[in-house]
C-alpha cells in the first residue's frame, strides 16, 4: 500500500531524514519508533504533503505521490491522525465526525462510514451531542482516530496516539488499533511507546538521527535488549 524509498528531507540547510526506506503492506500495521527529534513526524509530514522531500520517493497503492499537495494525498486515500489529538473542542462529537468527511461527495458512503465508526467507538455514539473539549483525553484520541476514518481512507497515518494518555486508557488505544486492523485498515503507526507498538504492529522500524537503524518483527522488540538499550532508552 505504501512504499517509501530513499526518502530525504531537509529543513533549510539541515538534513533531517537520510535514505529512509520502508514499506507498509496492505492490511498490516507498521510502526516507526524513535526518540524525540529522531524524525518520525517529519516522515509523516513528507508522506502527507506538508513537507517537500529533496530526495527519494513515496508510492501509494503503486502511484508515485512524492511531493504531492496535501489535498491530493487525501484524495488518494491517506488520512492522518495528528499528534496531540487536535479535535475541534467547541464542536460536538458528531460535528467533528462530519468535518472528517468534508471533502466527500458520496453522501451514502458518509452515512455508512458514520455507522461503521460509531460501531467501532460506542462511547462516541453515547456522547455524540457533547462538545469534544469536554471528553476525556482517551475519548478525544478516539475521536481524532474516528474523524480521520470519516474520510474513508485506505491508509491511516497515526502520530503518537499514546502520548498523554493515562496508563489505564492505553489498553483502549491498543484495542482500537487492533479493531481497525481487523477491519482491514492499513496503518503506519508512529510511536515512542515500545509496548504499544509491540502489541499492535506487524513490523517495526527504529529511527535515529533521521535514519532507520533497526527493522524487524514488532513482537520481538520487547525481548531485544540490544535495540531497547541502544535506541529506545
Ligand atoms: N519546521 C522545522 N524547521 C526546522 N527543524 C525542524 C522543523 N521541524 C522539525 N525540525 C527538526 O527536525 C528533527 C526531527 O523532528 P521530528 O519532529 O520529525 O522528530 P520526531 O521524531 O517526530 O520527534 P517528537 O517525538 O519530538 O515529535 C528535530 O531535530 C527537529 O528539531
UniProtKB/TrEMBL annotation:
GO molecular function: ATP binding; ATP hydrolysis activity; branched-chain amino acid transmembrane transporter activity
Annotated protein name in UniProt: ABC transporter ATP-binding protein
Record-linked InterPro entries: AAA+_ATPase, ABC_transporter-like_ATP-bd, ABC_transporter-like_CS, BCAA_Transport_ATP-bd_LivF, P-loop_NTPase
Keyword Manganese: no
Keywords assigned: Amino-acid transport, ATP-binding, Nucleotide-binding, Transport
PROSITE patterns: ABC_TRANSPORTER_1, ABC_TRANSPORTER_2
Organism domain of life: Bacteria
Domain ABC transporter residues, every copy: 2-232
A Gene Ontology biological process term: L-amino acid transport
One of the Pfam families matching this protein, by short name: ABC_tran
Family: Belongs to the ABC transporter superfamily.
SUPFAM superfamilies tied to this protein: P-loop containing nucleoside triphosphate hydrolases (SSF52540)
Amino acid at each position: 500500500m505504501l512504499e517509501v524509498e530513499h526518502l530525504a528531507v531537509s529543513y533549510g540547510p539541515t538534513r533531517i531524514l537520510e535514505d529512509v526506506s520502508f514499506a507498509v503492506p496492505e492490511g498490516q500495521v507498521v510502526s516507526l519508533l524513535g526518540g524525540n527529534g529522531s524524525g518520525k513526524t517529519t516522515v509523516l509530514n513528507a508522506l502527507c504533503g506538508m513537507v517537500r522531500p529533496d530526495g527519494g520517493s513515496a508510492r501509494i497503492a503503486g502511484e508515485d505521490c512524492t511531493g504531492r499537495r496535501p489535498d491530493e494525498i487525501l484524495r488518494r486515500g491517506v488520512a492522518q491522525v495528528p499528534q496531540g489529538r487536535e479535535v475541534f473542542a467547541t464542536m460536538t462529537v458528531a460535528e467533528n465526525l462530519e468535518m472528517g468527511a468534508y471533502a466527500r461527495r458520496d453522501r451514502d458512503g458518509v452515512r455508512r462510514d458514520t455507522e461503521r465508526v460509531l460501531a467501532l467507538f460506542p462511547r462516541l455514539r453515547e456522547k455524540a451531542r457533547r462538545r469534544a473539549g469536554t471528553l476525556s483525553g482517551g475519548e478525544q484520541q478516539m475521536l481524532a482516530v474516528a474523524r480521520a476514518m470519516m474520510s474513508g481512507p485506505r491508509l491511516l497515518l497515526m502520530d503518537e496516539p499514546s502520548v498523554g494518555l493515562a496508563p489505564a486508557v492505553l489498553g483502549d488505544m491498543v484495542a482500537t488499533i487492533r479493531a481497525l486492523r481487523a477491519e482491514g485498515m492499513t496503518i503506519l503507526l508512529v510511536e515512542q511507546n515500545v509496548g504499544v507498538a509491540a502489541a499492535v504492529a506487524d513490523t517495526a522500524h527504529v529511527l535515529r538521527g533521521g535514519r532507520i537503524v533497526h527493522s524487524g518483527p514488532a513482537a520481538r522488540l520487547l525481548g531485544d535488549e540490544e535495540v531497547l538499550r541502544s535506541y529506545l532508552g
